[in-house]
């Protein structure tokens, strides 16, 4: 693994070059493999948070805190809001999909400078979406002792949103944003105006249009309220990530790079919260209402603007490698903790930790937290090992 100092020097040299180049020059540098440090960190941060969740750490902390206490309230933010409302954890999937769009902007721009045609890019895009769909279905394919067909996994959703973003990549930013708004309007129309008996309550769990479509697609409804057609409104997240990525690539100076990202993010927050407060469309993550999509997308845009300013402009790169090496194998580690950790390794490691530490007399709550951290470190070290071996899994 590169040391923090060497990583920092690489980032600084890249950004120094970037700052002195115009649009065409910038694209040439990107063609040689430049990475946006803030984007690498953003993706790595999201994956680290997901890894900690998969380890069970958040649940253990939540269970050991006193209801009503400050720590309990903080721990509760790492759970999805039951229905109408918003927690911090509700922003993780939108960030995952938003980052994919931003990374796509860099990837496709690099491919264009290398002379790849649209047909070549399209072939790769459709292939990638197929594999995302496959792994998303495979992730949920085993339920207990039987097979299951489900379309609620984030990778399944991403297979659709990435394809939409690719198809509009060469559009102007204004047209891309208009399309994203159109997708939100379409979602509103589907939920409000298609009246199916038993599924004619647009914002009621188990009785909305999304639940009806799930019955058609999978012959079942998710007991938690999730719906497969969330991929329609959340395609906006990937499109906005794409738009932001193109702005960061083509604007001539840092101010003009960040300003439109901040403005779009602020507008999304204003409209999203406005729809909720006015009682027009409630913020509901599980069916990705338009208000939720706008609010979560707004936070994603503002987070990218802040991280770009803090890391790429202000050059704060300390501790970045801890996160970036995870982000470089994001799809792999996601599938690893979803399939291997959750269904086998977690119990195995917790059994070892409990057997070794319990004789000391430490409380079960503390042992559970130690076990969760041990699981996380196994996951992180796997990413570290892959990074050292220069093994990067890509679709």
Return the string of H and E elements: HHHHHHHEEHHHHHHHHH
As a percent range, the share of helical residues equals: 55-70%
Residue runs with pLDDT of under 50 for 5 or more positions: 1-32
Our Rg estimate from Cα atoms comes to 22 Å
State the shape.
globular
Helix/strand class: mainly alpha
Strand content: under 5%
Strand order of the biggest β-sheet:
1-2
Q: What is the makeup of the main sheet?
A: 2 strands, antiparallel
Tell me the count of domains. Answer: 1
Mean pLDDT: 89
User: Total number of helical segments?
Assistant: 16
State the total count of DSSP E strands. 2
Distance between the termini: 23 Å
What does the model show?
- This protein has 395 residues and is mainly α.
- It has one domain (4-388).
- It is 70% helix and 1% strand.
- The protein contains 16 helices and two strands.
- Strands 1-2 form a two-stranded antiparallel ribbon.
- The model is unreliable at 1-32 (pLDDT under 50).
- Keywords: Membrane, Transmembrane, Transmembrane helix.
Keywords:
16 helices; 395 residues; two-stranded antiparallel sheet
């Amino acid at each position: 693994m590169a040391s923090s100092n060497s990583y920092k020097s690489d980032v600084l040299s890249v950004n120094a070059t970037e700052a002195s180049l115009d649009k065409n020059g910038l694209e040439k540098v990107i063609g040689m493999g430049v990475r946006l440090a803030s984007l690498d960190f953003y993706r790595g941060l999201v994956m680290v948070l997901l890894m900690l969740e998969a380890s069970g750490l958040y649940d253990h902390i939540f269970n050991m805190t006193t209801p009503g206490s400050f720590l309990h309230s903080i721990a509760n933010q790492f759970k999805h809001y039951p229905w109408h409302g918003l927690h911090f954890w509700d922003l993780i999937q939108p960030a995952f999909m938003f980052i994919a769009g931003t990374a796509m902007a860099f990837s496709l721009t690099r491919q264009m400078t290398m002379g790849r045609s649209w047909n070549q890019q399209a072939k790769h895009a459709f292939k990638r979406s197929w594999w995302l769909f496959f792994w998303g279905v495979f992730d949920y394919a085993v339920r207990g002792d039987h097979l299951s067909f489900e379309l609620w996994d984030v990778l399944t959703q991403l297979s659709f949103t990435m394809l939409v973003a690719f198809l509009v990549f060469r559009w102007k930013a204004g047209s891309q944003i208009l399309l994203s708004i159109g997708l939100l309007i379409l979602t509103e129309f589907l939920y409000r105006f298609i009246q199916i008996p038993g599924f004619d309550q647009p914002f009621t769990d188990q009785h909305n249009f999304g639940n009806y479509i799930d019955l058609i697609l999978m012959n079942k409804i998710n007991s938690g309220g999730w719906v497969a057609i969330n991929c329609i409104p959340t395609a906006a997240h990937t499109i906005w990530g794409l738009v932001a990525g193109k702005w960061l690539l083509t604007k001539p100076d840092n101010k003009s790079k960040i300003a439109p990202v901040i403005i779009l993010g602020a507008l999304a927050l204003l409209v999203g919260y406005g729809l909720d407060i006015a009682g027009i469309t409630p913020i509901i993550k599980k069916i990705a209402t338009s208000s939720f999509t706008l609010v979560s997308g707004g936070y994603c845009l503002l987070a990218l603007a802040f991280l770009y300013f803090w890391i790429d402009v202000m050059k704060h790169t300390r501790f970045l490698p801890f996160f970036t090496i995870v982000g470089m194998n994001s799809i792999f580690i996601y599938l690893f903790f979803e399939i291997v950790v959750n269904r086998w390794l977690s119990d195995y490691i917790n059994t070892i930790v409990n057997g070794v530490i319990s004789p000391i007399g430490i409380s079960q709550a503390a042992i559970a937290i130690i076990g969760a951290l041990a699981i996380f470190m196994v996951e992180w070290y796997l990413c570290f090992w892959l990074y050292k071996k220069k093994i990067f899994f890509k679709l």
